[in-house]
Structures are given as structure tokens and as C-alpha cells.
Design brief:
This protein is α/β, with parallel strands linked by helices. It is built from ten helices and six strands; from the N terminus they run αβαβαβαβαββααααα. Helix 3 links the parallel strand 2 and strand 3.
């Protein structure tokens, strides 16, 4: 995968510069792949800043696994909160967390002689984790452009909230050197890497393998199967094609069409609540 676009270096340098004037960093994670969507370079950059991990898209990830991740972060003394920006449901836990961090920051300001100072918040994450949608949710208006694909946000944007906060939305940023194939596949399957640099059939096979071992009931119900954990992925994919009538001329199987359907079903949450990694997996 050639997955590190040229503009990422510029974005990374911009983040380093803006961190000098930021008080709080909210890192947006995809709750289906919290570890894979946590850019280690970003985490190192903000080591001296207050931070909150926002586990976004929690409505389409496994509730039980979400709790495991929240406990995992809590044990590391990291503030983490579940969120789903799309439905715009008020997230009291999130606002409580921001309020506690705000109080901590203002105490620091007062010790330095600053009162009523605007708190600056930086929102960061890998592409397509929902940063801009989350900011629109906070501001209660469409302050920034959003889109269901990586790379919509291109330049930095400061947005004011009631003269109390200033929030900076930034383009999504990947890291240049990554040798972990599992993380690459997790990012690609969830749509955090552009589709034109990945192979749908290969991704769908990867996803089916995971579903077979961890969510066999969901897989069987969604595609009207009777698959077992020991069945070959190629056989499962063929059954899905036949059940859906994905056939070409001369009764040849349209694997590509099935691959696109499986990936779309997963990304939209139509398969159900699924998580692709747990804390113990690293």
C-alpha cells in the first residue's frame, strides 16, 4: 500500500507548530479499531498537553469491547469517552470530561495571572475518523466541511464556541513508516485509507476471516449462511455470491461485487456492532 500522501508531511509540521498555542488535544479514534487509528506520532507530540481520547462511531462497534477499551485507557490514566457524532445525541460524559479538563487548565492560567483566557482545543486523528462532524456537533452548526471519505479537510480552521473555546480542525494525518500489516488492513477495512490504493477483494477476505472467528452468528444471519469457524473463506465468499445472485455470464461468480457489498455493509454498520481489535491484542 502506497498510503502516505505528500501533503501529510506538511500537515504534520503544521500540527507541531500549532501545538505551541493549544491547551487541550482531543484525539478522535475509530472505536472499531482504537489501536490502529491511534497515530503513535501524534501521541508522542502531545506528551505535555492535556488530552482526551474520543472513541467515535461507538454505535457501530461492539459494546462489550468498547468497555474493555475504556477500562484499558483508564488503567493508563488516559481520559477516554465513547461518542457518535452522526446522531447528534447529547454526550454528557464527553462534556463532563471537557469540563474537568477545562477547570484544570484554568487553574494553571490563574496561577500565571491569566483570567478568562480562551482555551484552545486541537482536534486530531487519522483521516475519516469523524473529526469535522464532531466539531459541527460541538458547535451545533456546520462550521467545517465533512465527507464520508478520507481527505476532505485540507487546511486548518479555527472555530469559536461562545467566546469560551477556540477549536482547531486539522486534516487527517497518517504516519509515514508502518510495517504492521494488521494495522494497515484495519485502517483500510474501516475506510480510513482511500479505496483507490487498496484491493477490495483482499480486504473483504481479511474481514471475512475475522468475522468467521469472532462474529460467526452475525455473518451467518446477514448473508443467510450456515458457515462454521473451520470453513474456508473462499467457500464462504462463494456462498454469499450465490445467495445474493452475484453472477456474471456463463454463471461465473462476481467476487468483486460481493467484496464491495461486504465492505460497505461493515463500514455503514449494517452488519451490526463489530470491533476488529481488543486491548489485549495490542
Amino acid at each position: 500500500m502506497n498510503w502516505y500522501p505528500g501533503h501529510m508531511k506538511k500537515t504534520y509540521d503544521m500540527l507541531k507548530e500549532n501545538l505551541k498555542v493549544v491547551d487541550l488535544v482531543i484525539i478522535i479514534l475509530d472505536s472499531r479499531v482504537p489501536n490502529s487509528s491511534l497515530n503513535p506520532q501524534l501521541d508522542k507530540l502531545i506528551i505535555n498537553k492535556e488530552k482526551i481520547y474520543l472513541m467515535n462511531k461507538a454505535d457501530i462497534s461492539d459494546d462489550k469491547v468498547n468497555k474493555e477499551w475504556l477500562n484499558y485507557f483508564e488503567n493508563k490514566n488516559i481520559i477516554a469517552v465513547e461518542n457518535n457524532s452522526i446522531k447528534n445525541k447529547k454526550n454528557n460524559k464527553l462534556f463532563n470530561c471537557i469540563g474537568k479538563v477545562e477547570e484544570k487548565i484554568r487553574i494553571k492560567f490563574e496561577k500565571k495571572g491569566f483570567k478568562n483566557k480562551t482555551i484552545r482545543i486541537l482536534v486530531v486523528g487519522v483521516p475519516n475518523t469523524g473529526k469535522s462532524t464532531f466539531i459541527n456537533y460541538l458547535t451545533k452548526r456546520k462550521s467545517v466541511k465533512t465527507g464520508n471519505k478520507p481527505g476532505v479537510t485540507r487546511g486548518k480552521q479555527w472555530i469559536k464556541i461562545k467566546n469560551k473555546f477556540e477549536i482547531l480542525d486539522t486534516p487527517g494525518i497518517l504516519w509515514p513508516n508502518l510495517n504492521n500489516d494488521k494495522i494497515k488492513f484495519n485502517l483500510a477495512v474501516t475506510g480510513l485509507i482511500k479505496d483507490n490504493i487498496t484491493d477490495d477483494l483482499e480486504l473483504s477476505m481479511y474481514l471475512l476471516e475475522y468475522l468467521k472467528l469472532n462474529y460467526i452468528k452475525i455473518l451467518n444471519e446477514r448473508y443467510n449462511l450456515d458457515a462454521s469457524e473451520n470453513e474456508e473463506i473462499s467457500a464462504i465468499l462463494e456462498k454469499i455470491c450465490r445467495n445474493k445472485g452475484y453472477l456474471l455470464k456463463d454463471n461465473e461468480i462476481d467476487y468483486e461485487r460481493a467484496a464491495k457489498t461486504i465492505l460497505k455493509d461493515f463500514r455503514n454498520g449494517d452488519l451490526g456492532k463489530i470491533s476488529l481489535e481488543r486491548p489485549e491484542e495490542g
